[in-house]
Amino acid sequence: MHAVIMAGGRGTRFWPRSREKKPKHLLDITGDKTLIQQTFDRVKPIVGPKNVLIVTGKKHARELARQLPEVPAENIIIEPQGKNTAACIGLAALHIIKKYGDGVMVLLPADHAIGNPEEYQKVLSAAIQATQQPEALITIGIKPDSPQTGFGYIEKGEALPAVSGREIFRVLSIREKPDTALAQSFVQSGNFYWNSGMFVWKASVILDQIEKFLPELHKGLTEIENSFGSTREARTVAAVYKNLPSVSIDYGVMEKAQNVFVLPADFGWSDVGSWDAVCDLALKDDKGNASTTDSQVIFEDTSNSFVYSPHKLTALVGVKDLIVVDTKDALLICKKGRSQDIRNVVEKLERKKMKKYL
Length: 358
What we know:
Elements: E1 2-7, H1 35-47, E2 52-57, H2 58-67, E3 76-79, H3 84-100, E4 104-109, E5 113-114, H4 117-130, E6 137-142, E7 153-159, E8 169-175, H5 180-189, E9 192-202, H6 203-213, H7 215-227, H8 233-241, H9 249-254, E10 260-265, E11 269-270, H10 275-281, E12 290-291, E13 297-300, E14 306-308, E15 314-317, E16 322-326, E17 331-335, H11 342-351
Parallel strand pairs: 1-2, 1-4, 2-3, 6-10, 12-14, 13-15, 14-16
Antiparallel strand pairs: 4-9, 5-11, 6-9, 7-8, 7-9, 8-10, 16-17
């Protein structure tokens, strides 16, 4: 068994803390450890630290090796450029088969938060057992507590025999992010789960599905596989990757495949998708205010606000519903509920070529 932690992306919604050289998953957003360290710590009891692989970009490989010294250097797989999750997963599957032969892959985003790690480990262990079904593609569905429009949804179908005492269902459909009305109907029906982006399957099975539904990607992956162990491996990977299609595993495979199953889960999951999500996770005072443990903050006649300010004392007076993030070279003041729009600030910085702030 192997865990593959997908450590790509820039985390633009976490500016000004998240930058190109040190994106969200390399930061201590929700605790003393970074998000990827927390992800590693949760999964290593299941698969063992030597069987964890990380897929990342060249810019972040050295910092990842520093943060995760238990991961063997050869298990840090570098993508020449980001090409979405299908290419990332296909490349990891090739490496697993090359090094170990066929095996079960547990696919995990690097930047999620889990409130109940023990329950999380039990769910993943059950999902691993479920891969014994032929050609099975297992996804972890989160029981929704509200009609969120920022998540994809999984529609359950017929129930299968329980795995380790846990429900498992055939998947009827995987839906893209819905509007508010559709999200409300999904939640009210009781037949839908949030798509967590966590998957479990055999390496050979996902490569077969990529060949079936994404033949162009599979052709490129085969070319890469044929170069493994040769002097041209690095050149081939770089040359082929430029032309690979950029497509998510959800859209490219999961929405089309037949043997897709969902294991419902409720382990305090958050995709930590924005500063608003961090606010939701933080411990608050009696007026709904929160700050990170390394921040010095005074709240005076202030409510429902969040502060990250480790470099200077910060005081909020007579305000409400604010997010304040102060770094050495930039200050963000954002109204709660608008943190998704921080990516627009990053886009403006790019247009103005203000690279030192990126």
